[in-house]
Amino acid sequence: MNNVIKGAACALLLSACATVEPEGPKATAVVRPASGSQVHGEARFTQIGSRVRVNAEIAGLSPGLHGFHIHDKGDCSAADGMSTGGHFNPLSKKHGAPTMPDRHAGDLGNLTADEYGKATLALMVDGISVSKGTDGVVGRAVIVHANADDLKTDPTGNAGGRFGCGVIE
Ligand code: CU
Ligand code: ZN
């Protein structure tokens, strides 16, 4: 009963409930294997106010951490994923963690794969938009890496090879 009342209050008082911000444009990347890996899955981007919600479900990983970034070019044609260029970085910042104010806009941190090689990510980030603008991610690519992103080594996070690639559209 309490939850029902709370829900009604949120519906009436939108400004009091940040979680009820309307959803804007969405984009999706279908992630396919690169560098001879089995990595595959999907990443979705949803504009919510000035921020973007990132949801990803990726499989075929080794258990543990795997760097996860938006790279500059939406071109997965190279077998090793190198055709996507470097991390999306419209403001010429240094590499970092998604929680840091100073970072590449494309720095999404790490996926954490379980013992079955599956990873699920839900993250709110700023510094990007679901558009084709200068901070826009549409037409760029997501990359899943072989190794963990250390969240500090510039410009790559030392995350190793590119094991999954998907164009954001
Ligand atoms: Cu990367
Ligand atoms: Zn970076």
List strands and helices in order, with pairings:
Layout lengths: L1 H11 L10 E11 L6 E9 L2 E9 L4 E8 L35 E7 L5 E7 L15 E5 L16 E6 L2
Antiparallel strand pairs: 1-2, 1-8, 2-3, 3-6, 4-5, 4-7, 7-8
Bound molecules: copper (II) ion (CU) and zinc ion (ZN).
Copper (II) ion (CU) binds next to strand 4 and strand 7.
Protein model, in words:
There is one protein chain. The protein is mainly β and 169 residues long. It contains one helix and eight strands. The protein has an eight-stranded antiparallel sheet with strand order 5-4-7-8-1-2-3-6, with no helix packed on it. The chain binds copper (II) ion and zinc ion. Copper (II) ion binds next to strand 4 and strand 7.
Quick gist of this model?
7% of the residues lie in helices and 37% in strands. The chain has one helix spanning 2-12, and strands at 23-33, 40-48, 51-59, 64-71, 107-113, 119-125, 141-145, 162-167.
